[in-house]
Design brief:
Elements (H helix, E strand, L loop, with lengths): L10 E2 L14 E3 L2 E5 L3 E7 L8 E6 L2 E6 L20 E7 L10 E5 L2 E7 L16
Parallel strand pairs: 2-7
Antiparallel strand pairs: 1-2, 3-4, 4-9, 5-6, 6-7, 8-9
Length: 135
């Protein structure tokens, strides 16, 4: 039977055109799944090491920004000898359309997975129009 393993590499994020990084460390672009459902759109981002205190999600105009800060975890009185896993922050930026109800956006994080629910605006939802027979 053939092995179907896949190596996953962290992809370093590009520096935003309209800003500079304020922390001197790498920023990675986290892997993201986007699922569209009937009433909402769900964005799921893998950000290992991030919790509710270290993630910032902002919406300015139509730009949704997800930023997570990760600090290296080296025990006290120890020195890091080898690191094969890159430690850095995470950032993803999305442009939203008018389909999203900005007032009802919700976000949660659990075990380094950030989940953002973007409810669809009422004007976008499909409406069933009844058809009546004429007499």
């Amino acid at each position: 039977m053939a092995s179907t393993t896949k190596d996953v590499q962290k992809k370093e994020a590009e520096t935003p055109e309209k800003g500079e990084l304020t922390r001197e460390r790498k920023v990675y672009s986290p892997a993201v799944d986007i699922v569209e459902r009937k009433d909402d759109i769900v964005v799921i981002a893998d950000m290992p090491g991030v919790d509710e205190k270290s993630v910032d999600i902002t919406l300015q105009k139509n730009i949704l920004t997800i930023y997570g800060r990760v600090e290296p975890d080296v025990p006290e009185k120890h020195t890091l000898s080898l690191s094969e896993y890159g430690i850095g922050d995470y950032q993803r930026v999305f442009t939203l359309t008018d389909e999203v109800d900005r007032e009802r956006i919700e976000a949660t994080v659990k075990n380094g997975v950030v989940r953002i629910v973007l409810p669809k605006a009422d004007i976008v939802k499909t409406k069933k129009i009844s058809v009546k027979a004429e007499a």
